[in-house]
Amino acid sequence: MGPASVPIRLSQLTLSSGRSLESALRERRSVREYSGKPLTRDELAQLLWAAQGVTGPEGFRAAPSAGALYPLEVDVVVGDVDGLPSAIYRYKPDRHELVVSREGDRRRELRAAAHGQDCVGGAAAVIALAAVYERTSGKYGGRGVRYVHMEVGHAAQNVCLQATALGLGAVVVGAFEDGPLKRVLGLARDEEPLTLLPVGRPL
Questions:
Q1: Which of 8, 73, 143, 146 has the most CB within a 10 Å radius?
Q2: What is the pTM of this model?
Q3: Which domain holds residue 158?
Q4: Dihedral sign (CA 184, 186, 192, 194)
Q5: DSSP per-residue string spanning 178-202
Q6: pLDDT per position as a tens digit, 126-145
Q7: What's the total number of domains in the chain?
């Protein structure tokens, strides 16, 4: 992250809506085509909170984590979000804020790393979930790898359900080249990419 990066505080969260969990579960579908209209900053804040946001004073997060060790890191590739310059941001759950890690619209590079998938290049934003396995395997050994994979599934589903509740479309993408994706996102050596979640307004 550049030395000039200033944290961007995200908006207050909406903790209730007119849509029930049951309806979000029923209506959730993989959406790969988007209208090209931007997301709002408030919508992005809700999506990131759903992935890894803090949900109480004890510091527990929205997705369950073995031993409360929280191996996941959340980046978002912003292309078209009102009130946010196009850039790659790292989400900081403890403060509910963003820090710029790379400037500029990186969706084309991200699309190339994801085997040219149009949903990655055409989304208003793409949430990327990566893991530092050692945070969990340091306590649980080889079993910790399984726990990390369980956790990323929980976080991805949270994002998909939150997108549905907001009237947005999202899809879980696992097809990408690890090395190129790490370079695009600027991940540290011990951070391994696991899932991409393109999000946009449905057609």
A1: 73
A2: 0.96
A3: 35-200
A4: negative
A5: HHHHHHHHT--TT-EEEEEEEEE-B
A6: 999 999 999 999 999 999 99
A7: 1
